Amino acid sequence: MSAEWVITKSYIEGNYDGTEKIATAVDVRGPNGGSEATWLGLLSGEGRAFRLIDGDGIIYFTGRCVRESFAPLDDYGMQDGCIQIQFYDKGWKTL
Q1: Alpha helix (H) ranges present in the chain?
Q2: Does the CA dihedral 75-21-86-36 come out positive or negative?
Q3: How many helices and strands, by DSSP H and E, does the chain display?
Q4: CB neighbour list of residue 34: distance below 8 Å, 6 or more residues apart
């Protein structure tokens, strides 16, 4: 079973102020059929922080997941060119 996750910020195209990327708040959830209560918990800070990164090391998305899992990358990030997921645990660590 896939771990439930939520993308909370996007850093991709169109999110620039001329000098740096600006995060756009989003609410993309997965997988389909996941628990509304779990997603609301993730949106309020529960679970593990993660970020999805492309092949050049550029952060595209950040969010939260119930546990360390490739689910956010497999379910959502790869369609936008992300190839790596990192989770925060006293620093960012690649899964």
Answers
A1: 36-43, 71-75
A2: negative
A3: 2, 6
A4: 4
Q: pLDDT at residue 91 above 90? A: yes
Q: 3: which 2 tokens?
A: 């771990």
Report which DSSP code applies to 4: P
pTM here? 0.85
State the first-to-last Cα distance of the chain, in angstroms, to the nearest integer.
Answer: 18
> Quick one: pLDDT band at residue 33, thresholds 50, 70, 90?
confident
Distance from C-alpha of 69 to C-alpha of 15, rounded to nearest angstrom: 27
% residues pLDDT > 90 (the chain): 55
